[in-house]
Design a protein that fits this description.
The complex is a heterodimer of chains A (229) and B (422). With 229 residues, chain A is an alpha/beta fold. Chain A folds into two domains: 120 residues, Response regulator (Rossmann fold); 98 residues, Arc Repressor Mutant, subunit A (Orthogonal Bundle), CATH 1.10.10.10. In chain A, strand 4 and strand 5 form a beta hairpin. In chain A, helix 6 crosses helix 8. The radius of gyration of chain B is 48 Å and the shape is rod-shaped. In chain B, helix 1 packs antiparallel against helix 3, helix 4 runs antiparallel to helix 5 and helix 5 runs parallel beside helix 8. Chain B is α+β, with helices and mostly antiparallel strands and 422 residues long. Chain B has three domains: 161 residues, no CATH class; 86 residues, Helix Hairpins; 137 residues, Heat Shock Protein 90 (2-Layer Sandwich), CATH 3.30.565. In chain B, the strands form three sheets. Chain B has a five-stranded mixed sheet with strand order 6-8-9-11-10, with helices on one face. Classes of the chains: A alpha/beta (229), B alpha+beta (422). Chains A and B meet through helix 1 and helix 8 of A and helix 4, helix 5, helix 6 and helix 7 of B.
Chain lengths: 229, 422
Amino acid sequence: MKLLVVEDEPALNKALADFLRGEGHLCEVALDYTEAAEKLALYQYDCILLDIMLPDGNGLDLLRQLKETHRRTGVIITSAKDSLDDKLAGLDLGADDYLPKPFHLSELNARVRSLMRRMKFEGAAFLQTGSLRIDTESRTVSVAGQEVVLNRKEYDLLLYFGTNPGRVIRKTALAEHVWGDSADQADSFDFIYSQLKNLRRKFAQVGHELNIETVYGVGYRFLPDHPAP
Amino acid sequence: MKLLTRSNLNSSLLLLAALATGALVVYWQLSEEIREEIDEDLLNRKLEILASLPAQTDSLLTQTGLRPDFELQEISPEAYRSLHEHFYEEELYELYEEEKEPHRVLTTGFEHKGHFYQLRIHTSLLDLEDMAEIIFWGTGWLFLFVLGIGFLLNRYMQRRLWRPFYKTLEELRRFQLDASEMPPLPSSTIHEFHELNQAIERLLERNRQAYLKQKQFTENAAHELQTPLAVALSQAELLLQSPALQANDMLALEELYQQLERLTALNKALLMITKISNQQYDRSTALNISPLAAELVAEYAQLANHKALELDSHIEPGVTVYIHPHLVEVLLRNLLRNAMTHSPEGGTITITLTARYLQIDNPMRTPFPGDPAQLFERFTKHGDHRQSLGLGLAIVQSICETHGFRPAISIQGTRFSIKVQF
């Protein structure tokens, strides 16, 4: 997928681009409004990561122009200004998602992947890692062809792991993803621990070992299996 | 004491002193004058008596059955020689008044055909006493009259005179440092009031400017901090994925991460308080908050359930409050989070929402020793919560302040209760 990162802070821009390239995307960067406008006029992107507060213009104007010319481009707004107004205005103008700064890179990855699936990018509306298959339209999960019935939080948790295979995911990032604004509770960590136990148990019931390893003191890492071809 | 009352009282006391002194002086002068007149009368009487002597018999009667205005008494030549004519006052019994009354007496002596006599002529001083009484009452009534007139005049005049002052006072009472406009102080032709208003205006403007600058600074600082924090967090997360990391490196990195997150949360909370008190959430609307409250209670109930806490909610439908849609969520979340954080396992949190108030009751692990209102202060923490920033209730407080709600905490032992009246 071809991405454009519009972010005026060079260090953050680089970190985001590095991360997305590491995820296997083609990634270009723009450090201000003018540069972003030029690139958008010249090239076609699948997805844009758009900061609203730019030194020489408002990201929302960029979004407005973009939606007139390139309807198919997905847009994720990132903004330090965690104001509801910006969020609403952005979504009104046709942005696909809104990610308030600061955010976890694993969360960004989850949002980008989710956007890709919704856009039916590469024709896939499901996620396959190893023998695990998550259908994001019907919100069903199967492993090696056998369906595993999960509740909402378990599904959210598994999808997050599935989107970030092999990556160390911090407990905080998991809690924030699953619990949103009610996450800042030490209790939510315990809760995630018990949800994970349930997940493992449910997969064990269909004879599959879900390989989510604990990274001591930090979080968890999901290691997908390699199914027999 | 009010200025008007005080000035009225002062002038009354002054008036009383002046009138009393005046009355005393008048009384003293009049009584001197009257004594002199009486003394002259007594001397006249003496001359009359002496003039009538040649017609008398050799030996004068010293006692008569009647009581004339004089008494005669024969005295020895020695006594006559040592007798000097003098006046004095004496209490004499009066039949009509049926009591003793003061009299002025002239004592003198004379010789009549070889005999020596002492003559005592007296006349009543009653006139003087009556006069004192008249003066006293006259002055008293005058005092009351002048006092009454003065009081009414003062009330009217002073009120008029001080009107600009009271207007200024009223404006100052209503003044808020974060108001967008300066209060309209009344103009006055009186020099002192004019100067006072000018001094107040200068003072207010300086304070307002300082306040605005400080506000602006807090906001800018928080904005500026966000970017480096975001960069540091992303770098830390990138680093966390490095396969070269040992287990203890990861722990150190996690600690670093947590501190960065704490800073970020602090910064966000402070920025939020600043924005709330700067009234940057200005799109308040009449909002039915019951569905949101129910939704949030359901959300927290899952976490509560995990912690063996019971959420007992009584939410009236259709509770409408005038508030910004984002802030009402922040308010509810902060209150619920606060209750969840401080409740021991197995406790019951009661949430009550009615048209007039929102109340949350919960048990605490340990009693709070200080004044409950302290908990609204920034960075006041209670109990051992490493995660807690001590800003949750400060945010609640500033939301309440800008929306005219009245929040109150009451604590009885380990029973905590917060009530927000709309």
